[in-house]
């Protein structure tokens, strides 16, 4: 390995320590998160899964610094990044890739990519361009895209640019909030393989939120299953499938077994939610 | 239970169909031949934009082929008809009618059966799809999964000869979707009506299908027909069986190849995700 900033994985430990979050609109306590404890190891690929509305995004937002918590604390390595008594800020050491995509539509791919390091004053333009090109080569994004605007890229490619834009900032952790949700299932499977390739190369800590079980098991080192209201951690599954993985894994007995294991936990929860929902409607 | 009148088969013979505008001319289907067998559940799967919905539209009679023939029981399809009914991606219930009125609408509107008979069948179907308690609710008052079930009942009451399912569970969350698949499987296994089901989810496709048709990219045709010889009644427990995994592996291989081709073709600047991947793999390897 050369001395480039993409390769370091002693850093990027996230410690989520007894975290709770209560929303209190009009005096009605809603427990979005209830006493969550997780430690994400440096360089680990962790996937958080649960039904819609279970508090997955709330937890991700708390780590990202977009949202506060009402109990407990969150650490990134030794640094405290969230507790009830502090003002939280997003940071370049933990970057979020969103569901809906957030490239600047009025900037070219290259301008989008150099924006982060330049606006933070870390690099001059020339340096940033050189760094961006180096990483583009490394992560398989063709230079012929440089001068294109996001609208002329395919949906898969937009996601690729966004992942690279996050990595340019050399974060300690990548936070992915259902990044492939809007893609059709074939493009999605290509993007899964792409993300795994990027993970093999960079070995960044990844905190990935989804409600797609197949996606969760295919990508993760560990899958964490969350329940709805209050958002509790129900189970943790070690996905012991060797890396590097490709799509052939999806049709192995081992994969189906892990998927099944997770499905049983989730099914119970869903039925509960489903029935409760129907009762509400009746 | 409401049984289908009679099961029909649908055959495509060398069908071609394009989309035209003043400036562009896109060939969607080309030399497409396929067979939807009577009393079987045929599933059509393929990359997005490969013309799956076009196939549905041709059978439903919403569109005509440019070339070739679309035959139902040997007769060319000439227009929309209650014998070939579509359940759409997005709910198409009448928002101003209750669940009960929606289901009853078809047969009463075309005076196929008496009001009393329609009432009896509607109640039976609503019960079958678990909506008895919701008969007087309007579509907006139902959850997504319940709306889809109302749609199923609304189509079934017409006793169509062919049911055309155009990604009917798309947009439902993964968990509700699973429950809907179970409902649908139960209904199919009870009625044995000819069904064509379009989807882009492989797991869904395999667990439902008697025959799986894998489509190519545009201009599309059937790349391969796979016989899904898992026993019926089906349940998700079969997803662990060896045969299931074999079928999944085979279909994944075909679909993955098509997805890579599609992604290469769709990038306007002739840049290519697939080449990027290959480079990446060689670099790492």
Indicate the topology.
The complex is a heterodimer of chains A (282) and B (285).
Chain A: E1 14-23, E2 30-40, E3 45-49, H1 56-64, E4 71-76, E5 79-82, E6 94-97, H2 109-119, H3 125-138, H4 155-168, E7 173-177, H5 185-202, E8 205-210, H6 213-219, E9 222-226, E10 233-238, H7 253-281
Parallel strand pairs in A: 3-8, 3-9, 6-7, 7-8
Antiparallel strand pairs in A: 1-2, 1-4, 4-5, 9-10
Helix pairs in contact in A: 2-3, 2-4, 4-5, 6-7
Chain B: E1 10-20, E2 25-36, E3 41-45, H1 52-60, E4 67-72, E5 75-76, E6 84-87, H2 99-109, H3 115-128, H4 144-156, E7 162-166, H5 174-191, E8 194-199, H6 202-208, E9 211-215, E10 222-227, H7 242-266, H8 273-284
Parallel strand pairs in B: 3-8, 3-9, 6-7, 7-8
Antiparallel strand pairs in B: 1-2, 1-4, 4-5, 9-10
Helix pairs in contact in B: 2-3, 2-4, 3-4, 4-5, 6-7
Terminal residue distance of chain B: 59 Å
Largest sheet of chain A: 6 strands, mixed
Report on the biggest sheet of chain B.
Answer: 6 strands, mixed
Approximately how much helix is present in the residues of chain A? 25-40%
Mean pLDDT figure of chain B:
86
Strand content of chain B: 15-25%
Shape of chain B, please?
Answer: globular
Query: How would you name the CATH homologous superfamily of the domain at 14-93 and 171-281 in chain A?
Result: P-loop containing nucleotide triphosphate hydrolases
Number of strands of chain B: 10
- Going across the major beta sheet of chain B, what is the strand order? 6-7-8-3-9-10
CATH fold assignment of the domain at 10-83 and 160-284 in chain B: Rossmann fold
Helix tally of chain B equals 8
Assign the CATH class of the domain at 10-83 and 160-284 in chain B. Answer: Alpha Beta
For this entry, what is the oligomeric state of its chains?
heterodimer
Give me the strand/helix succession of chain B: EEEHEEEHHHEHEHEEHH
If you consult CATH, what is the topology of the domain at 14-93 and 171-281 in chain A? Rossmann fold
Strand order of the largest sheet of chain A: 6-7-8-3-9-10
Judging by the overall fold, what is the CATH architecture of the domain at 10-83 and 160-284 in chain B?
Answer: 3-Layer(aba) Sandwich
Which CATH architecture of the domain at 14-93 and 171-281 in chain A is right? 3-Layer(aba) Sandwich
The CATH homologous superfamily name of the domain at 10-83 and 160-284 in chain B equals P-loop containing nucleotide triphosphate hydrolases
